[in-house]
Amino acid sequence: MGKMHAITMQDGKINLDDIDIPQPGPGQVLVKSLACGICGSDLHLTRHTSDVFSVYKQLGLMDPGVEGTPGIMLGHEFAAEVVSYGPQTEGKFPPGTRVTGVPVLQSAGGAGVGVTPGLYGAYSEYFIADEALLIPIPEHVSSHAAATCEPLAVGLHSVNRSAVGVDDIALVAGCGTIGLAVMAALSIRGVKTILASDPQASKHAIAKAFGATRVVDPTQEDEVALAAELAGDNNVVIYECVGVYKLINGFIERAPKRAKLIITGVHTTPFEVNFAIPMVKEMDIRFSYYYTPEEFAECLQYIADGKVNWRAMCTGKVGIDGVSGAFDTLLKPNDHIKVIIEPWRKGALTAYSDEGG
Amino acid sequence: MGKMHAITMQDGKINLDDIDIPQPGPGQVLVKSLACGICGSDLHLTRHTSDVFSVYKQLGLMDPGVEGTPGIMLGHEFAAEVVSYGPQTEGKFPPGTRVTGVPVLQSAGGAGVGVTPGLYGAYSEYFIADEALLIPIPEHVSSHAAATCEPLAVGLHSVNRSAVGVDDIALVAGCGTIGLAVMAALSIRGVKTILASDPQASKHAIAKAFGATRVVDPTQEDEVALAAELAGDNNVVIYECVGVYKLINGFIERAPKRAKLIITGVHTTPFEVNFAIPMVKEMDIRFSYYYTPEEFAECLQYIADGKVNWRAMCTGKVGIDGVSGAFDTLLKPNDHIKVIIEPWRKGALTAYSDEGG
Fold it and tell me: Based on the domain organization, do B100 and B213 belong to the same domain?
C-alpha cells in the first residue's frame, strides 16, 4: 500500500511523518480518519508522558521492560470512513461508510486506539479499528458531531457512576469538554440543579448551552459551599472535571456530609490526603475512567436526536500539518474547548466552523 | 447528689477520679452504666489525641479556639440502667429499665457521648443520655450483649454503605471488633463469599463464628489477589477494618477493576496517594463512619434473635479501677478483641465470662 501522513507524540513533541498505510489484521478494518478531537488526556499525556507510562507499568497495562518513552500515535475521538477489511471480518459496512466507535482494539488484547504505543491513532490519515466495535454514523450526523461522541460517553459514564438523583445538587467543576459532557448527561437524566464552575468567563455561556442551571466563577465564590447551601437534605455530587490534582483536597475539605466526589479528570501525580476528612463526612470518592459500548451508542443517539448541543463545544479545527502548532496553543492558557483535527487536509488552527464536517 | 467514680482520658493517660454525679438537663436521662465496650477508636484517640482534635477543629466539630488537649470521658458502647429524668422528658422507661442507644446527645447539639470533651461517658459509673435515643434492652439480652450493639451497628452501616451484592466477593481486612461486625452483617445479608484477613491466628476461628467463609493470613497469602481470583465477573468489596493508614495504598494497588474499598477504620494521618491507580480501575472509595438509629435497632434485634454470635468477640472484662491497666495491655500487641468494662465494680482485666453480664 501507499504512504500516509501520520502524527506521533514522543517526549512531549508532536511529529508529522510519512509512513506506510497499515494493513488490517484479523477482525480489523482499515479506516480513513475524517475527524478526530484533541482530548485533554492527549494533552496530559504530552505534558506527563513518563508519569503516565510509570502508572501504566505499575498497573500491568504496559510491559515494565519498556525503556524510555515510546512514541504514541494519538487520536481516539474519531469519525472515520471504512476503507478495507482484514481477514476474519464480516464486511458489515461497505467501503465509504462513515463510522465511529469505542477506541479499543479487542483484537490487540484490549489496547487503546490513540493511547497504547504501537497502535495507530485517529490524528493520522488512516488507522486500524475493530470491526466488532464500529457503529455507523447516521446520515444527518456530521463527522465533527460524531467525533464528539467519545467525550460525551465519558461524561455519561461519569453521571451513571455517580448514581445521581434528580433532586441532588450536581456541581460540575471544570467547563472543558468533559465537564460539558457531564452537564449534557445530567440534563438528559433530568437533574434539576446543575452548577457549573470555571474561572474562565468565556466558558460560562457554553456551560449553559450544555444544561448548566447556574454558572460560578470559583475564584469569586465558593462553589462547594453554594452547592451545600442549595442541597438542604439532598446530596451534593461533585464531578471533578478539571484534572488538576491540587484541587482535590479542596473539594474534599469543603464538601458537605454524604457528598459524592466523582473523579473524572486524569491525575497522575501523587499527593497527600487525610482520610479522616472524607471519613467524618461519609463521602464517596468514585473514579470514572472509561465507558461501555452501550453508553457510547446512547450518546450517538443523543447527538442524532438533537439532544446535545455538541456544536457549542467545538472551538477550533485544524489540518494535519497544523496539529503541532495547535498543541503549542493548547498547552498554554487558552480559551479552546474542543479542537477537531481533519487529518485529510492541511491547514493551521482556525476558529471552528461546520464546513467540511 | 453524691459522688461517682469516673474515667477521663487526657494526653494519652487514663485517670480515675471521684466527681459529682451529673444532673440530667432538658430531654436528658441520668443512667447508670452496666457495661461498656472499649472501642478501637478509644484506643486510637488515646494514641493520637492531638491529630484527632486537629481534624475535629478543621471540620468544625470542635471550637478551634480550644487549646491543648482537653480530657475526654470515654465510653460510647453502652448498656445502662435508667436512674432519673431531667426536665422536658416523658419518663418513657421506669427507673431500673435497662437501655442502650445511639451515643449522641441531640440535646447538646449532636455531640458524641464518650467522644466529645465536656460530656460524660459510659466508662464512668453514671452518664447522661438523651431520652429520645434510648431503646430498652429485651429481657433475655444480657447487658454485655447489648454493649456490643454499637460496634455491630458500625459493621451493618459499612455493609449498607457498600451496596454489596450477594455474589460479590467480600474481603474483610482485619478481624477486630469492626471486622467481625462487618462479617456478621454480610452473613445476615446473604453474601456468599466472605474472606476474612488477619495476621493473628487467634482471630481466625472467631472470624468463622461471625460468618467468614474463609480466613487468610495476609502475611502468608495475598488476600486481595485471592479475592480477585474468586470474583470472576463479580465485584470485589474490600472492607478496611484495620485502621492502619499504611495499608490503604496496598489495597488500592492490588484491587481488581471495579473494586469498592470501604474505609471503616479510623485514620487521621495524612498519606500520599496516586489517584491514577484507582482511576484506571474505576474504584469506589467509600467512607463509613456512623450509623442510623434504625441500623442500631436492627442490630439489637439481631442480637435478640440470636443471629449474631456476639459472645465470640468478647475476650475480656474489667472493673473501673482496672481500666488504666487494660489500656496498657490493649495499647501493646495483644490478642484481645472486645473488652467489656463494668464500671459498677472493681477488678483488673480478666478473661471474659458471661457472669454478671
Answer: no
Do both A87 and A213 map to the same domain? no
Q: Is A272 on the interface with B (CB under 8 A)?
A: yes
Mean pLDDT by 10 residues, chain A (357 residues): 93 96 97 97 89 80 81 97 98 97 92 92 98 97 98 98 98 97 98 97 95 97 97 96 93 97 91 95 96 97 97 97 97 95 98 84
Residue type, A210: F
Q: Can you tell me which residue has the cell 489517584?
A: B275
Assigned domain for B266 exists? yes
- In this predicted structure, what is the pLDDT of residue B69? 84
Share of chain B above pLDDT 70, in %: 99
- pLDDT band at B58, cuts 50/70/90? confident
Alpha-carbon dihedral sign for residues A231, A236, A241, A243: positive
Q: Which of A245, A274, A282 sits opposite B289 (nearest CB)?
A: A282
| Residue B264 pLDDT class (50, 70, 90 cuts) | very high
> B276 — contact with chain A (CB < 8 Å)?
yes
- Give me the interface pTM, i.e. the ipTM: 0.91
**CATH no. for residue A132?**
3.90.180.10
Q: Do B266 and A274 touch (CB under 8 A)?
A: no
pLDDT recorded at residue A1: 64
Q: Give yes or no: residues B107 and B237 share one domain.
A: no
Residues B200 and B227 in one domain: yes
Strand runs (DSSP E) across chain B, as ranges?
3-10, 13-20, 28-37, 77-85, 98-101, 104-105, 111-112, 126-130, 134-136, 169-173, 193-197, 214-216, 236-240, 260-263, 271-273, 284-287, 314-319, 338-342, 350-351
Best B274, B281, B295 member to test A by mutation, with max A CBs in 10 Å, is B274
Distances (CA, A) of A226 to A170, A240, A281, A327, A344: 11, 16, 17, 35, 47
* A258 in a structural domain: yes
pLDDT reported for residue B55: 80
Q: Give the chain A residue nearest B61 (alpha carbons).
A: A280
Residue A294 lies in a domain: no
CA distance A113 to chain B (A): 16
Is residue B149 within 8 A of residue B39, CB to CB? The reply is: no
- C-alpha–C-alpha distance, residues B211 and A111, integer Å: 41
pLDDT in tens, B89-134: 999 999 999 999 999 999 988 889 999 899 999 999 999 999 999 9
Collect all residues of chain B within an 8 Å Cβ-Cβ radius of residue A290: 282
pLDDT score at B1: 64
Question: For residues A64 and B169, which has the higher predicted lDDT (pLDDT)?
Answer: B169
**What would the pLDDT profile of B188-213 be if each residue is shown by its tens digit?**
999 999 999 999 999 999 999 999 99
Judgement on whether residues A76 and A194 belong to the same structural domain of the protein: no
B273 touches chain A (CB under 8 A): yes
Coil, strand or helix at B84: strand
Residues in chain A: 357
Task: Name the residue with cell 497527600.
Answer: A272
Say whether residue B254 is in contact with chain A using an 8 A CB cutoff.
no
Domain check: are A77 and A189 in the same one? no
User: How many structural domains is chain B composed of?
Assistant: 2
Q: CB-based contact (8 Å) between A283 and chain B?
A: yes
List the single residue in A248, A271, A280 with the smallest CB-CB distance to B289.
A280
* Domain span at A218: 155-287
| B263 at interface of A, judged by CB pairs closer than 8 A | yes
Contact flag A245-B275 (C-beta cutoff 8 Å) = yes
Question: How many other C-beta atoms can be found within 10 angstroms of the C-beta atom of residue B91?
Answer: 11
Q: Which of B161, B263, B274 sits opposite A55 (nearest CB)?
A: B274
Q: Please answer yes or no on whether A284 and B282 come within 8 Å at the CB atom.
A: no
Interface test with chain A among B280, B281, B292, by most A beta carbons within 10 Å:
B280
Could you tell me if A89 and A122 lie in one domain? Answer: yes
CATH number of the domain at B230, please.
3.40.50.720
Tell me: do A221 and A280 sit in the same domain.
Answer: yes
- For B55, which of A161, A268, A276 is closest by C-beta distance? A276
The rounded distance, in Å, linking the Cα atoms of A247 and A39 is: 20
Q: Establish if B303 belongs to a structural domain.
A: no
